Amino acid sequence: xxxxxxxxxxxxxxxxxxxxxxxxxxxxxxxxxxxxxxxxxxxxxxxxxxxxxxxxxxxxxxxxxxxxxxxxxxxxxxxxxxxxxxxxxxxxxxxxxxxxxxxxxxxxxxxxxxxxxxxxxxxxxxxxxxxxxxxxxxxxxxxxxxxxxxxxxxxxxxxxxxxxxxxxxxxxxxxxxxxxxxxxxxxxxxxxxxxxxxxxxxxxxxxxxxxxxxxxxxxxxxxxxxxxxxxxxxxxxxxxxxxxxxxxxxxxxxxxxxxxxxxxxxxxxxxxxxxxxxxxxxxxxxxxxxxxxxxxxxxxxxxxxxxxxxxxxxxxxxxx
Length: 320
Description:
Blueprint lengths: L7 E2 L37 E6 L4 E8 L2 E4 L5 E2 L4 E2 L5 E5 L8 E9 L11 H6 L3 E5 L4 H4 L3 E2 L4 H9 L5 E4 L9 E3 L4 E4 L6 E3 L11 E5 L4 E11 L7 E6 H9 L14 H10 L8 H11 L10 H9 L6
Parallel strand pairs: 10-16
Antiparallel strand pairs: 1-16, 2-3, 2-7, 3-4, 4-9, 5-6, 7-8, 8-9, 11-12, 11-15, 13-14, 14-17, 15-16, 16-17
């Protein structure tokens, strides 16, 4: 789909003040569909805040035991006109209201060749706006990490045909201390002639670097990362994301497959998803899970695990 660009608002990593009387932030498409799952449960635990020691943040996602994927522009210091030094960055996995699952300092930054924050060609810059951050220690046992889907146009059309459900999760400026998630947000399609994915997820300032991911039947996989918001003069704003094909090889050189954390936790997420599926839990979670499993014609154990969470997510329908 081809869009005429009039104004491009790039999401920044520093949260800004939301003026009273303006309830919908740039990036909210229509109604605000965000929900707020528990940050300590996988897959949400693999998503966190990439904080600057001097203030401000972006969203990042663990794609390896010691590797975080984020937006390249998050690492640029507009005051010094250079990239931030590693010692000024640290990552909080599963951050929620001042608490977190795991923490690590940053020891390395890898920005792709050809990315230039000062590039006046907005589309070229947006299509290369991703970066990998290396952490000082392995966080996989506590937080887990997500795999990467090598998303290109052909793979996107295949996923759309199979009614794949996409999820976007990040730390929004107006909800900076909790994870905001848009379940089953709509993917519009690729830009005409450009490696950029357009989406309708409710991603705002602070959500730069946030994953757009899906469950492939076995594991959770990052299909793209949100990097900017396109706000035309007329009509709704559109999210812009760098597709997985762009960074898949770089990620896989560090970690081939995503993995859940060592300690399974998913009960609160199961309750949230059951409610979104139209079957809110009233009392006994195990009974509600057995009912869902029976409807799915799978063994009704009543137990919550990551495969069950993934199956619930795939049952969510994309908005028309």
